[in-house]
Write a structure and sequence with these properties.
Layout lengths: L6 E2 L16 E4 L2 E7 L13 E4 L10 H4 L4 E9 L7 E7 L5 E6 L2 E7 L5 E4 L9 E9 L10 E7 L5 E7 L13 E7 L3 E10 L5 E10 L5 E7 L5 E4 L4 E5 L12 E9 L2 E10 L4 E4 L2 E4 L2 E2 L2 E5 L13 H13 L4 E3 L7 H10 L2 E5 L22 H4 L3 H15 L5 E8 L8 H15 L6 E5 L16 E5 L11 H18 L5 E5 L18 H15 L5 E6 L31 H11 L12
Helix pairs in contact: 2-3, 5-6, 7-8
Amino acid sequence: LVGSEMCIRDRRNDMLYPILTKTRSIYDLNGLWNFKLGSHDPKKLLSSSEVMMVPTSFNDVVVDEEKRNYIGDFWYERFIELPPIGENQEAVLRFGSVTHHAKIYVNGEFLGEHSGGFTPFEVIIPEKLLSEDRIKVSICANNELNYKTLPVGNYSEEVREDGSVKKKVQENFDFFNYAGIHRPIKLIVRPKIHISDLVITSQLSDDLKSAIVNVDVTSSQEVDDINITIFDEEHKEVAILENGSTTLHNVRLWEVLDAYLYTVHVELIKDEEVVDTYDEPFGVRSIRVADGQFLINEKPFYFKGFGKHEDTFINGRGLNEAANLLDLNLLKEIGANSFRTSHYPYSEEMMRLADRLGVVVIDEVPAVGLFQNFNASLDLSPKDNGTWNVMKTKEAHEQVIAELVKRDKNHPSVVMWVVANEPASHEEGAHEYFEPLVKLYKDLDPEKRPVTLVNIMMANPKNDKAMDLVDVICLNRYYGWYVEHGNLVKAEEELGKELEEWQALYPDKPIVMTEYGADTLPGLHSMWHTPYTEEFQIDFYDMSHKVFDSIPNLVGEQVWNFADFETNLMILRVQGNHKGLFSRNRQPKSVVRHFKKRWESIPNYGYKSKKIV
């Protein structure tokens, strides 16, 4: 309901997380699938000579080096037994994500496709196939990237001696182009008349003791009535909504590292019967930016945390829920409170876990690589490479923003949206490119969260053309590493100078350091300021934090990176990026103890309090 009016939308855009209810059945299709790199006719049977696990990246499982680096189409196929499906029900194949493009076939019939490797999509199985005892599901995935896709890739083709064509993608970003079915596949049996979306918003009173909660329900078809109830964490009924709204008194707030989740329970009524139900957890909290502060529940919040990657041994970018829990437990143990989903939306399972644990999330679309001639070299001169004449990503960018907001709008952990990571915002055309995209976030998000752009080193206060558009200044800076390498005295001077310039340019905007770090090899030691040693990593961060503490508007520090991760091949990378505070297998480097001491001494709220109007 929107007020008291029904809202009906295209079912193909459903993004509700798949849960088991009295009206919905969920069947897990993860596990072993037949697999093939290359071409396949979905009307024929795919050989079982090679198999692949779902979910996972195929790259680190196939072992063969040429297969690991394969670019192009690749196929998954298996038969599934269909459960009984009533005449008032429909069967849906729901994909958590397929990287980077997917075409779905059932019994050789094309049902739909989706571009973008980090958000969910679904296809409805035609009724004529539901009478079959079993059906054959075929998935054609593709991992090509180019100047129209997000992330951006440098696509090329090589004609080999035998006349065959080998496709190549040189990443226009600094992490490995893992591909595959990265998140779960589910078969959902649900009513044809069903809940297809929920929008939950809350408005706190001035004293933060009560909140007006509004719930807008989207239905696939018209119904007679919608019942909406709110339960507390003990599953006690606390409110029944009238016209989609209610006031919660003595409300328990969702706080940083002290999460409290209510649950909205929705029932669709048709012909005096409940035809569908769905439960959505939510938290009540407020967010706003004012006077150079980032306020959560009207308290100045200080971000302590990390940029991360979905990256683990064997799984690659594939969902690993145990690793997710370990990562957030390590995050809390070290005294952190937040992470950024660099450089793409993370799994729905990770977002729900952050909600439950009270971990703050900066949510990012896969808009990385928007920089013509990007590489990880030391050329940081702010020249104009003509990026905004070359990149043709506008359509993909609008799509990923729309899908991310639709998926994550109800998560209390999400406090800010990222429009892009390290784009060429110092080049001509950047302002014109980003202005409508920032507006799109604002238009689509029912909560109107702050929007930011994560700024690259070349886009300094003198030449940046986009930071006036955003609410928070987010900076990736590597003074002492890529600039003034190893010279921490000079690095301290230049870092402080630039931060002061940003603060003077935008005195009302908070600043968050979203990346800073130095590659460090565990076990490498030195008596001197020697890069790559564990001692240098400690000294690097001590220098950075000294500067951060001197800047009143700097309200957060997110280390690059939480853990070492896999990258593409380049001269600056020795089997991956080693800027992690933890190794790739989550063992701590020496600096972890120093961070724990610092971050446990910094409160989540009020570290840099100023009088807020």
